[in-house]
Amino acid sequence: MAKRTTETVVRFASPFLLPGFDAPEPAGDYRVAHDEESIEGNGWAGWLRVGSFIHLPALGTRAASHQMAPVAPGDLEAALKKDNHT
User: What is the pTM of this model?
Assistant: First the structure.
C-alpha cells in the first residue's frame, strides 16, 4: 500500500481555537500535513486521508519547540470558515 503526505499552508486572520487545544493559537500562517494511503478498486485508484496535522507554532514564529498536533479536517475547515466571516 502506497502512502503519501501532502502539505498546505492555511492562514488565520484572527486567533483560533480547535477542538482538543488548551488555548487559542495566534493569527498567522500554519503548515498542515495530510497523510494519505492509496486505495484501489476495479478499474480505479484513489487516495484515502488517514490523518491531518497542524504544525505549531505559526510559520515565521521563533519558538524553542515545534510540534505537530492532530486535527480533524472538518474542524480545521470550520475554523477557517469562521475566521473568514469575522
Answer: 0.87
Question: Which of 9-35 are b and which e, b meaning 16 or more Cβ less than 10 Å from the residue's Cβ?
Answer: ebebeeebebeeeeeebeebebbbebe
Taking the C-alpha atoms of residue 59 and residue 65, their distance in angstroms, rounded to an integer, is: 13
Report pLDDT digits (tens) over 28-57.
Answer: 999 999 999 999 989 999 999 999 999 999
Q: Furthest-apart CA pair in the chain: how many Å?
A: 49
Dihedral over Cα of 84, 66, 5, 22: its sign = negative
With cell 519547540, the residue in question is: 65
